[in-house]
Structure to design on (103 residues):
Protein backbone atom coordinates (compact mmCIF):
# COMPACT_ATOMS: atom_id res chain seq x y z
CA UNK A 1 0.00 0.00 0.00
CA UNK A 2 1.41 3.36 -0.92
CA UNK A 3 1.09 6.36 1.34
CA UNK A 4 -1.13 8.10 -1.22
CA UNK A 5 -3.76 5.40 -0.66
CA UNK A 6 -3.89 6.12 3.05
CA UNK A 7 -3.91 3.74 5.97
CA UNK A 8 -6.40 1.26 7.20
CA UNK A 9 -8.39 -1.51 5.67
CA UNK A 10 -11.36 -0.69 3.49
CA UNK A 11 -13.97 -2.74 1.73
CA UNK A 12 -14.99 -1.87 -1.79
CA UNK A 13 -15.94 -3.54 -5.06
CA UNK A 14 -12.42 -4.97 -5.41
CA UNK A 15 -12.41 -6.63 -2.00
CA UNK A 16 -15.94 -7.92 -2.58
CA UNK A 17 -14.97 -9.47 -5.92
CA UNK A 18 -11.82 -11.04 -4.47
CA UNK A 19 -13.71 -12.49 -1.50
CA UNK A 20 -16.40 -13.81 -3.82
CA UNK A 21 -13.74 -15.47 -5.99
CA UNK A 22 -11.96 -16.88 -2.92
CA UNK A 23 -15.22 -18.20 -1.50
CA UNK A 24 -16.05 -19.93 -4.79
CA UNK A 25 -12.56 -21.40 -5.11
CA UNK A 26 -12.53 -22.69 -1.53
CA UNK A 27 -15.95 -24.27 -2.04
CA UNK A 28 -14.70 -25.91 -5.23
CA UNK A 29 -11.58 -27.28 -3.55
CA UNK A 30 -13.56 -28.64 -0.60
CA UNK A 31 -16.39 -29.98 -2.72
CA UNK A 32 -18.84 -27.77 -0.81
CA UNK A 33 -22.03 -26.16 -2.04
CA UNK A 34 -22.08 -22.43 -1.22
CA UNK A 35 -25.81 -22.28 -1.84
CA UNK A 36 -26.24 -23.56 1.71
CA UNK A 37 -26.07 -20.63 4.15
CA UNK A 38 -24.31 -22.57 6.91
CA UNK A 39 -21.76 -23.97 4.47
CA UNK A 40 -21.10 -20.48 3.10
CA UNK A 41 -20.66 -19.09 6.62
CA UNK A 42 -18.21 -21.87 7.46
CA UNK A 43 -16.18 -21.16 4.33
CA UNK A 44 -16.19 -17.40 5.04
CA UNK A 45 -15.06 -18.07 8.63
CA UNK A 46 -12.23 -20.19 7.23
CA UNK A 47 -11.09 -17.35 4.97
CA UNK A 48 -11.24 -14.86 7.86
CA UNK A 49 -9.26 -17.23 10.09
CA UNK A 50 -6.57 -17.65 7.44
CA UNK A 51 -6.35 -13.90 6.83
CA UNK A 52 -5.89 -13.29 10.57
CA UNK A 53 -3.14 -15.90 10.67
CA UNK A 54 -1.18 -13.83 8.14
CA UNK A 55 -1.11 -10.77 10.41
CA UNK A 56 1.59 -11.88 12.91
CA UNK A 57 4.11 -12.48 10.14
CA UNK A 58 3.19 -9.22 8.43
CA UNK A 59 3.66 -7.37 11.74
CA UNK A 60 7.06 -9.00 12.21
CA UNK A 61 8.07 -8.12 8.64
CA UNK A 62 6.91 -4.52 9.09
CA UNK A 63 8.92 -4.16 12.30
CA UNK A 64 12.03 -5.65 10.65
CA UNK A 65 11.58 -3.14 7.81
CA UNK A 66 11.55 -0.21 10.21
CA UNK A 67 7.82 0.49 10.57
CA UNK A 68 6.70 1.74 13.96
CA UNK A 69 3.90 0.39 16.14
CA UNK A 70 1.69 3.43 15.46
CA UNK A 71 2.04 2.93 11.72
CA UNK A 72 1.24 -0.78 12.05
CA UNK A 73 -1.81 -0.07 14.22
CA UNK A 74 -3.11 2.42 11.64
CA UNK A 75 -2.48 -0.04 8.81
CA UNK A 76 -4.64 -2.73 10.38
CA UNK A 77 -6.97 -0.14 11.85
CA UNK A 78 -7.82 -1.80 15.11
CA UNK A 79 -6.23 -2.40 18.46
CA UNK A 80 -7.87 -5.84 18.62
CA UNK A 81 -6.11 -7.00 15.46
CA UNK A 82 -2.78 -5.63 16.66
CA UNK A 83 -3.18 -7.32 20.05
CA UNK A 84 -4.05 -10.60 18.32
CA UNK A 85 -1.02 -10.32 16.06
CA UNK A 86 1.26 -9.55 19.00
CA UNK A 87 -0.17 -12.42 21.04
CA UNK A 88 0.73 -14.85 18.27
CA UNK A 89 4.08 -13.24 17.51
CA UNK A 90 5.51 -12.61 20.97
CA UNK A 91 6.13 -15.07 23.81
CA UNK A 92 3.60 -14.75 26.64
CA UNK A 93 6.18 -13.66 29.20
CA UNK A 94 7.12 -10.58 27.15
CA UNK A 95 5.35 -7.33 28.00
CA UNK A 96 4.55 -4.45 25.71
CA UNK A 97 7.04 -2.30 27.68
CA UNK A 98 9.82 -4.84 27.16
CA UNK A 99 8.99 -4.97 23.46
CA UNK A 100 8.99 -1.19 23.15
CA UNK A 101 12.35 -0.90 24.88
CA UNK A 102 13.82 -3.51 22.55
CA UNK A 103 12.79 -1.58 19.44
Amino acid sequence: MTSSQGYGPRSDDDTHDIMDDALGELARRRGAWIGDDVTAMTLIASLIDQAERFLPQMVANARMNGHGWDEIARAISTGRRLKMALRLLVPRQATFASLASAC
Remarks:
- The chain has five helices and no strands.
- The CA atoms of residues 38 and 44 lie 10 Å apart.
- Helices lie at 13-30, 37-64, 69-76, 79-89, 96-102.
